[in-house]
Amino acid sequence: MPDTAARAAAPPSPAGADGAARPPEDALAGLVDATALHAPRRSRVPLPRPVRRLAGPLLMVVVWQALGTFGIVGERVLATPGSVLSAGWELTRTGELADHLLASLARVASGLALGVTAGLVIALTAGLFRLGDELLDSTMQVLRALPVLGLLPLVIIWFGVGEAPKVALVAFGTAFPVYVNTYAAIRGVDNRLVESGRTVGLGRLGLVRHVILPGAVPGFLVGLRFALTGAWLIMIVAEQLNATNGIGYLMNQAQSWYRTDIIVLGLLIYGVLGLAADGFVRLLERRLLGWRRGFEGGA
């Protein structure tokens, strides 16, 4: 009769008003915790991600418009969003904005093509070869410390006052972010992966192709993101000196007439172009790094 004695010694289960047995409170707590752990987590804001990303800029525009509408900030100091849109529409209607924008895009594209290519080639040479590291890395670190815009007078002496100095400045300023991040990514590849590749029979070219270069892609994309942003920062200054077109030139001309609406328009164009460039890099990351899943943030 041991089962009967055990049942008699066990504490009675709590009962409700209807006399039905209730599970112990600890069991209920454990059941709730287990349910919460396995239940799918939902976003607190039931909106698409692009809409949530635009919420911050839209709020800034609303505050900006309110400051101008209520006279807290004068039109001479900072034009309102409505004035900026009006100026943008007028320049678009006359075709002037498109001409300046295309000129800036051509300069940035040429400078980026040269700078990114140079930075990538030097990073591969220094990262993959010991002799290249000894000869190139220290030189690149010295050049990286030079102020890009401080080279403008020297570049003008070298290349004149045409398109060449502007493209050269962009190329010089964008090569270093690509070099530094790509070189660090190559040297940061886990040596255990290299040893594993050797174990399965990969030679030097096979290791570079299947282990080192894939491991360096994230670093290269980080450098490319900095390079795209830096290109527009350099161009906005370069186009204000010895230029006859471009967004920077347009802003410089507007300064003479105290047209803050055109100046702010130019700044917004640079910001939108920077956002588009960042979106392009994000697209590359999804294409090239689909095998790698990283932390995407909590709900």
TrEMBL record:
It is a multi-pass membrane protein. Keywords: Cell membrane, Membrane, Transmembrane, Transmembrane helix, Transport. It is found in: Cell membrane. Residues 1-24 are annotated as: Disordered. Residues 97-281 form the ABC transmembrane type-1 domain. Belongs to the binding-protein-dependent transport system permease family. This is ABC transporter permease. The lineage of its organism: Bacteria, Bacillati, Actinomycetota, Actinomycetes, Kitasatosporales.
